[in-house]
Design a protein that fits this description.
Elements: H1 2-16, E1 34-38, E2 46-50, H2 59-83, H3 88-102, E3 106-110, E4 134-146, E5 154-165, E6 170-179, E7 189-191, H4 202-206, H5 209-229
Parallel strand pairs: 1-3, 1-4, 2-4, 6-7
Antiparallel strand pairs: 4-5, 5-6
Helix pairs in contact: 3-5
Length: 233
Amino acid sequence: MRKFLAVLALLATSACATPYVAIPYEADQNPVATITLIEDVGSADVMAYEFASAGGNFGLVGAIVDAGVQSSRRARVEEVLENAGFDAQAFFRTRLTEELEALGYAVEIAQVDGRNRSDLMETYPDDGDEVQAYLDTVLRSYGFVSAGAGTPFRPHASVEAQLFNPDTDAVLMRNAVIYASIGQPQGQIVLSPDPRHVYNNREELLEDPDRLVVAVRAAISETAVTVARLLAP
């Protein structure tokens, strides 16, 4: 529950807090041939959350009932993904690697300790000449979101990424990508969801497990592809 609340706080603050300050990659000034991708991309759980839901507007009892409804919906989506053998973090890492390689990069995977759940790492190993640049990515949230009662659920994914040069201790790129955002987050890249993946209610969301999995895969895939293209040479 604590992790789930942290994700909701992250989404809420991204919509209305101080604008995100991105750092664009300048390939001509910081050429990189080999990217070392940090294997750990976070451990966010799937979400299926309705913001500004009707139940939350009826005091403590309404809030308790609403929490139960939200939790039940999330558990059913999680069950569908588990039954399909879907690993969101592994899928994101695979799609990111594929797209980086398509751009001409050599990609290595490194196990680096120190991830704080849904945050970029604060320090990176000093590997001398062995690592040209670390790509630190964190899948902050994924699943489905609705802006409120009567508003359709849409697939969602949120990623933050940072390219770091351990030799110069310089951040070469930093950005955040959100697929189907709530609100208008400033400074982050917002991707519009595929209109084919719209679910008007819980029943419609859960009636076709295969379609549900395809929708989640699409959201995560698009964020991975977008992150990779931020590093286009």
